[in-house]
Design goal:
- The model has no long low-confidence stretch (mean pLDDT 78).
- It is built from two helices and two strands.
- A two-stranded antiparallel ribbon has the order 1-2.
- The protein is globular, with a radius of gyration of 11 Å.
- The two termini are 20 Å apart.
- By secondary structure, it is α+β, with helices and mostly antiparallel strands.
């Protein structure tokens, strides 16, 4: 897995769209969110890491897509 980083503008649009469809909200997520590219064979999946939650071995609490 690559290092965590800020999401690109395109990634923010996709995440926002999916979160809206899932009725998921988090205040200031755009400012607080970090992402990391997953080792998925080039499929483009991202690990989402809200501020203060950088744990690559965590269990899923919510799924938006």
């Amino acid at each position: 897995m690559k290092s965590n980083r800020n999401p690109t503008e395109e990634e923010k649009l996709i995440i926002s769209f999916l979160a809206t469809k899932a009725n998921y909200s988090h205040n200031n997520w755009e400012k607080d969110l970090k992402v990391a590219e997953m080792n998925d064979g080039g499929m483009g999946n991202l690990l989402l890491m809200p501020v203060g939650q950088v744990n690559t071995k965590r269990l899923f609490k919510a799924l938006i897509s």
